[in-house]
Write a structure and sequence with these properties.
By secondary structure, the protein is an alpha/beta fold. It contains 14 helices and 12 strands. The protein has 2 domains: 242 residues, Type I PLP-dependent aspartate aminotransferase-like (Major domain) (Aspartate Aminotransferase, domain 2), CATH 3.40.640.10; 132 residues, Aspartate Aminotransferase, domain 1, CATH 3.90.1150. The chain binds pyridoxal-5'-phosphate.
């Protein structure tokens, strides 16, 4: 029987490994190891939790179903997931990235990727022609985020998949911002999908996790070996928290993106706001591409205010919204990318990207929409 995404979030795809007592909530197998029945017989598929654990396996099967992936591997964080993906490459390989990436990913490339001989090329991926021009015979992957963090730039996933295929490279998509509820890059031709499960998937600002989803089952063994030799596999408790969160992903996302749209509209009409970056607004340059490849605009938005002083005032005066990094949880958060999420990006590069001292990023949470607008209003007065 076919299952819609809401049903997949609650039940998985029906092929999911089940707890033998059929508990509705998967038990937390808080154990380091599993006993062997006798010599020559391994215990089911579970030996040692760094390799496999039933709670984690249950979650991985859910996430794979949500992304339409052959498999998903769960990591201790989004960064651990990205680290594992980098380990799939060899020294001398080039990776072509969107110029506007999550700050941690840029730092990882600079501090470890480069040391391991990977060569990073940056491109404005909003234009497929520029992406194609930047490809070289050594380019082994195109790595994108769409919408991007924090500029909300939109990249055409299917167009990039086609370019990648032409050059025998992979397309890797960090799908954290829209979540599998709103966007499924594998269906658009991506080879690898990355998630920070910390954000919308777990969705409660109470745990850290990450995923690598793969389109091709042939890659699973290699990726699993990397995951358990790096030792960054997700702990049972955090796997359980992430799966508990996923059950409500659709209702959370619906509320959050409805609120984000209302807030974006309100900000647009505010005299002290210079520009609003939200892919749900028809005037956003990526609106049409996002509408074509996703089922919504998500709940992340950025905006610039009239002066650096006003940006500082907003951060100091918000009462319901918290000045904090991260995103995707029930609590609305506002951050100042110039010194927070993108502190490691050089001032020149920040300026080029548009991350100025007047620029704020907001993750719209689950509070009442009018309360959030009233909070922004008093903070900007
Ligand atoms: C947060 C985030 C990451 C890193 O995830 P962690 O769980 O914090 O390690 C990667 N990509 C994007 C887009 C993110 O928002």
């Amino acid at each position: 029987m076919s299952r819609s995404i809401e049903t997949l979030c609650v039940h998985g795809d029906g092929h999911r490994f089940a707890d033998s007592r059929e508990s509705l909530s998967m038990p937390i197998y808080q154990t380091a190891a599993f006993g062997h029945p006798d010599l020559g017989h391994s215990p089911d598929r579970f030996y040692y939790t760094r390799l496999t654990n039933p709670t984690r396996t249950h979650l991985e099967e859910t996430v794979a179903a949500l992304e339409g992936a052959a498999a998903a591997v769960a990591f201790t964080s989004g960064m651990a997931a990205i680290t594992a993906v980098f380990e799939l490459f060899s020294p001398g390989d080039r990776i072509l990235c969107s110029a506007d990436l999550y700050g941690g990913t840029v730092l990882l490339f600079d501090s470890i990727g480069r040391k391991n001989g990977l060569i990073l090329d940056l491109v404005d991926s909003t234009d497929p022609a520029l992406v194609e021009n930047a490809m070289t015979p050594e380019t082994k992957a195109i790595y994108i985020e769409t919408p991007s963090n924090p500029m909300m730039n939109v990249t055409d996933i299917a167009a990039c998949a086609e370019i990648a295929k032409k050059f025998g490279a992979w397309l890797i998509v960090d799908n954290t911002f829209l979540s599998p509820y709103l966007q499924n890059p594998i269906a658009l031709g991506a080879d690898i999908v990355i998630h920070s499960g910390t954000k919308y998937l777990a969705g409660h600002n109470d745990t850290i996790s990450g995923f690598v989803c793969i389109a091709d089952a042939a890659l699973e063994e290699k990726l699993r070996k990397i995951s358990y030799t790096l030792g960054a596999t997700l702990a049972p408790m955090d796997a359980w928290l992430t799966e508990r969160g996923i059950k409500t992903l659709p209702v959370r996302m619906e509320h959050q993106q409805k609120s984000a749209m209302a807030i974006a509209q309100w900000l647009k009409g505010h005299p002290r706001v210079k520009k609003v970056y939200y892919v749900g607004l028809p005037e956003h340059p990526g609106y049409a591409v996002n509408a074509k490849q996703s089922r919504g605009a998500g709940a992340m938005l950025s905006f610039t205010v009239e002066s650096p002083e006003l940006a500082q005032q907003v951060l100091a005066k918000v009462q319901i919204i918290t000045f904090a990094e991260s995103l995707g949880g029930p609590e609305s958060l506002i951050t100042f990318p110039a010194t927070q999420t993108h502190a490691d990006v050089s001032p020149e590069d920040r300026e080029k990207l548009g991350i100025t001292d007047c620029f704020l990023r907001m993750s719209v949470g689950l509070e009442n929409t009018q309360d959030l607008i009233a909070d922004l209003e008093q903070a900007m007065a």
